[in-house]
Amino acid sequence: xxxxxxxxxxxxxxxxxxxxxxxxxxxxxxxxxxxxxxxxxxxxxxxxxxxxxxxxxxxxxxxxxxxxxxxxxxxxxxxxxxxxxxxxxxxxxxxxxxxxxxxxxxxxxxxxxxxxxxxxxxxxxxxxxxxxxxxxxxxxxxxxxxxxxxxxxxxxxxxxxxxxxxxxxxxxxxxxxxxxxxxxxxxxxxxxxxxxxxxxxxxxxxxxxxxxxxxxxxxxxxxxxxxxxxxxxxxxxxxxxxxxxxxxxxxxxxxxxxxxxxxxxxxxxxxxxxxxxxxxxxxxxxxxxxxxxxxxxxxxxxxxxxxxxxxxxxxxxxxxxxxxxxxxxxxxxxxxxxx
Length: 339
Fold this sequence. Notes:
The chain contains 13 helices and ten strands. It is α/β, with parallel strands linked by helices. It has two domains: 2-140 and 266-334, Bordetella uptake gene, domain 1 (D-Maltodextrin-Binding Protein, domain 2), CATH 3.40.190; 144-257, D-Maltodextrin-Binding Protein, domain 2 (3-Layer(aba) Sandwich), CATH 3.40.190.10. Helix 8 (179-191) links the parallel strand 6 (169-173) and strand 7. Helix 6 (114-121) packs across helix 13. The termini are far apart.
């Protein structure tokens, strides 16, 4: 069942995007009316009109869809409406700068991905990592190193390392200083594998280059790679994670081979530092409960993720957020992109 779901993830992704938009629109109207009649509620029932979840990406994309799926049940738990607000531009800079203008009352929640961390680390916005407190993690999707399925010289991670020590492998990346670039650098450093990054401007162009043999490897999440693996167009030779994935039992993890490098696409939520702790705790509890519900759990399963471990509360997520930022800084320094 897991393989079928991962193979059809993009179709499911589109469905969930539309479904989430409809659900959040309908339930928002109904909830706002019913909650107005209730005497008791959360901090948000009394003080927010409505809660804003600020995203930096396009409507209908992964960050938007995840936020809407999360909000389906979170609005019920907080007894308040939730509005997804798009502030696009500057790889998260506009979303960050907008969030900084908002009150520290829990009524504005920022959706976070790695892009935000790189933007902060490179000083491209006014926001600093210490301006934020992580309230909940939604998902943590690991990363594959994939090769062209027809390339027999690189068909295993052992062969890839051997070839790289003869001549640096070429790795396709979407952008300099982006997730794939930093991920490949971290793997290269841990495994002692020389590489040359080739920027194509998008993941799709990197895959096209991989298919044509212009590059040796690319970095993909399981949700991105599922259909290509199923169609035998690419082969995953390594999972940059602590453990193997149940749906991909034959793909070794970096940790089991002695390389302590973990590269993931994380999506989570944060509020401004200075927000009262009881409100932070309330948001965290409401979000985690919502993301453990079957509505969100099925969304996670569609990406081969475990609903029992992907969502996490403020204590776990805030610590991870700060650690991820420190790792991003180290990688960007290593790449010569920051001092």
